[in-house]
Amino acid sequence: MKKNKLAHIISGLAIATSGEIAFAQANTLEEVIVTATKREESLQEIPIAVSAISGESFKQAGLDNNKDLAVKSPNLNISSPFSAANPYITLRGVGNGGDFSPLPEGSVGVAFDGVTVIAQNGRLTQAFDLERVEVLRGPQGTLFGKNTTGGVISYISRKPGDEFDYNIDLTVGRFAQTDVEFGMDMPVSDELKVRVAGVSNKRDGYVDNLLTKEDLNDVDNQAARVVMVWEPSDTFDATLNLNTFRDRGGVNTGKNRPVGVEFGGTGTDYLGFDGFAIDDPFTVEINTDTYEHIDSDGSILTMNWDLGYATLTSVSGVVEVDRDQVQDFDYSINDSVEHRYIDNTEQFSQELRLASNTDSDLQWMLGLFYFDSTLETNHRFSFAAISTFFHQNAKLDTESQAIFGNISYNLSDALRLRVEGRYTDETKDYRFEQLGFPGATAPDYSRADSITGPTVVNQPSISDDATFDEWSGRITLDYQMNDEVMLYASASRGFKSGIFQFPLFLTNTATNATGPETIVAYEVGAKTTLFDNRARINFSAFNYNFEDQQVFTLSGINPLVPELLTENADEVEIIGMELDFTLIPTANWTITGSVGYLPIAEYEEFTYLEGLPNAADLSGERIQYAPRTDGTIEVSHLSEFGNGMQLTSSVSYDFQAEHSADAANAVTGGRLYVPRWHTWNARFSLDVSEQLTVTAWAKNITDEEYIDGLVNIGAFGYDMALYGEPRTFGLTLSFKH
């Protein structure tokens, strides 16, 4: 039956790409080089589903936030209902959808220059001055450090050039947006080159707080990076990347609705607040001054030694991320549920790779990996239902070691076999403690850690540890039919180690570690470059079979006590396809786009809250954060003027189907669906000269009001929704020398 399902999808792919396209003589597509296999290879020659966006295209398309990146890669979903710095990332329906606690690692990895960052609130902080972004879809358990079952988003920083050069981008826009980005190449000598880059993003909030008269959802962050490349000889080079990030903006603030009542309807939460009836998604009444402070600092040292027969590569990474965040969880005038997270994450990773250099039919790579991290978090929150202020502390130490390798062999001039594998041994040590202080209906965040006094909950320190050792790997066949078409098929196994949880009330065994999740994935695809290199059409079809997938929900253990809970769903199946394309029908027109399709994404066997009074059988229900379709299409036109000026005009359309936002959506009567949405965007870039470009842009032109994230807080009488940004527009001046 599963084979028939996959065959049906593959047939659909063939139909989607078989139509005739009439092209006039036109410009041709440039070759795209990626490092998804830890070697430099053409995008069209690697048997992996990858979306690659160059740094220049990243800027030209105005991709200045996580949402923008998501719509440019099929089946990628990024939303941030609670915190802009703590996004939910799902890829092909696999990820950490809904989990806002600081402890779990995402099923979709995020890497900066080869170093995977595990801190949930520090994973998307370096998206500027890029050489390119690569989105690798499917399990990536072999080559990217920490095991990931969903995929990897890999950011590659721009390297310094051989000559003095600089670029500056100045942007002004709606809501007092003021952005500045710069980069400068400074060759010190023939051996040493340096690039310095930085960015500052500021914008007023677009959500009005009627109670405090302040704007919410504002942006205020700065980042800087120094990249130094030293090449003392033809056989050795070293690259040092020093980076820093500061966020002093506001938390993402949404809007609540009473359970069972549409937005704009009447109803109250469990404390009687009726402000939900304000029929404006960007108007709220919140009594707490919220903020989000993120500090992230990192250093990455990459060294390459050419040994003749092979190249030895060392990648060392150190990352530290601090968060201090206050959020009004109830979004009301009451001190209902308000909390503060104070986190610190420190990680060190070391990778060694030895990769063959020869041009023979056999290529190989061997590697060792070591990872060590410590996460400490302090959570303080008030719970008005029992007039208590809670104070929680947790510490998680993780140590991971792995050996990995891959080989590829040309079975013929057209057929290549690739085999890769990894064995990982990971240990986690966890400690948790909780204190509760009665009478503190309003959160007194100034209290010291050594609070004394009567308690309603005095939970001694809970300590636990767990070890996970598993293998992952992939076997792939790719066939180069001709110069235009490459076909591939792969089978892979991935895993993610079990996770410790961060409970709200210690009402159950939520501090215990979940089991690891494992995935067996099958994929077929094609990379095509057609019509004299004026059309690039890539597609893939895949079948995922999960065992013990880690599923998060904000569960109602009892009517007044919600709980952060991750469970293992026994069996999950996902079947889908993707299509990426770039077309140049004439010298002046370019059409790009992508479509993701997940017809099947369901729990085959899953008992929700097994062993508890609210247990329910979710077998056959659709999984969360897995829209059936999503995609984007952009049409661009180039107008050339006699004085050498050029105008590039582009219009894009982005869309996403409805999807469940909670694993227990069926239990709640199906109310937790994020409705389908679509937006129109436009850009007009005038190249005044080789040094100056002026760009006028607009996003969400029709001012679509759409929900981007939805959270189940039914135990308190409401659900929380975060709306996508309203219409924005502005002007960007780009200088380069």
Reconstruct the topology from this structure:
Layout: H1 2-16, E1 33-34, E2 41-42, E3 50-54, H2 55-60, H3 66-71, E4 76-79, E5 88-91, E6 94-95, E7 108-112, E8 115-116, E9 130-137, E10 151-157, E11 165-173, E12 177-187, E13 192-203, E14 207-209, E15 214-216, E16 219-233, E17 236-247, E18 255-258, E19 283-284, E20 291-306, E21 310-328, E22 337-356, E23 362-383, E24 388-410, E25 415-438, E26 457-480, E27 485-496, E28 517-530, E29 535-558, E30 561-586, E31 589-605, E32 607-608, E33 616-617, E34 629-640, E35 646-656, E36 659-660, E37 673-674, E38 677-687, E39 692-699, E40 707-713, E41 718-723, E42 728-736
Parallel strand pairs: 7-10, 14-19
Antiparallel strand pairs: 1-2, 3-9, 4-5, 5-6, 7-8, 9-10, 11-12, 11-42, 12-13, 13-16, 14-15, 16-17, 17-20, 18-41, 20-21, 21-22, 22-23, 23-24, 24-25, 25-26, 26-27, 27-28, 28-29, 29-30, 30-31, 31-34, 32-33, 34-35, 35-38, 36-37, 38-39, 39-42, 40-41
